[in-house]
What does this fold into?
Amino acid sequence: MSDRGKVYVIDDDEAMRDSLDFLLGSADFHVTLFESAHHFLDAVSSIDFGCVVSDVRMPGIDGIELLKRMKASHSAFPVVIMTGHGDVPLAVEAMKLGAVDFLEKPFEDERLIGMIDAALRQAESSARSEAALLARGHQRGRARRLLQPVSKDFRRVSRILPAKRNRADAG
It folds into this structure.
């Protein structure tokens, strides 16, 4: 059963998509494939939280433009950028735009899997921290929206928040 998290692979190369589907599926990730950044952006509002793994060089919307659009929309999805044409300025630009990591093809399977695990953990931790701050400021609705897509423990956390608020209001 896929329980490690969701991964959205964006690459115009069908063989690369199929290879990543097999690799990440074998590592217990739930994988969804997109042949273009355009198709991913069309679907992003209706998909669950997960890590995006995108090629940088693609026709139409490339990986850098994808990062710009996700940053502009304040997307919480962590993004790993991969490329067969890596250079330092490209890596720096991707990181400045919010990529959590940059990977040159060919790469070691375990390195990509480790990057995805770390990206999902970091995003969940950030969402929990922001939700806790909002909850202290009595913005529980926004806190719930932040936590819901990234936390398997959302129900438990949402029961704790009202209890803590009630104690604070009483004191």
